[in-house]
Specification:
CATH superfamily: RelE-like
Oligomer: single chain
Strand content: 25-35%
CATH topology: YaeB-like fold
CATH class: Alpha Beta
Largest sheet: 5 strands, mixed
């Protein structure tokens, strides 16, 4: 078994994103909502071993911003940043949504 090298932290915004996703899906199915919750949480928590495995966020790379990475659990995108031995999950959202619109909404809020 590999030993954790990093600590994973969820920002309040990312936690709220996940809560919103689960709430929305639970209107259709509690079981499906719980499956999505655990899939996203497990994938993010596994960043404690090898966080560099996620790709650089393509929409940001276009602007030479390369310190944000993402994992995709289709259709969900987990956006995170590595800072030393810490990994910060900063957003979780539906990948079918426009990334620029999401960021703009958050910056103007």
């Amino acid at each position: 078994m590999l030993k954790a090298k990093y600590s994973v932290y969820w920002t309040e915004i990312a936690y709220n994103d996940l809560e919103g996703i689960v709430d929305y899906i639970s209107n259709e199915s509690i079981d499906k909502a719980l499956d999505v919750l655990w899939s996203i949480r497990d994938k993010a928590e596994n960043l404690n071993i090898f966080p560099e495995r996620g790709r650089i966020v393509p929409e940001l790379k276009f602007y030479n911003i390369e310190n944000y990475r993402e994992l995709v659990i289709s259709p969900w995108r987990i956006i995170y940043r590595i800072d030393g031995k810490k990994v910060y999950v900063i957003a979780v959202f539906d990948g079918r949504r426009n990334f620029e619109d999401i960021i703009l909404d958050r910056l103007l809020w």
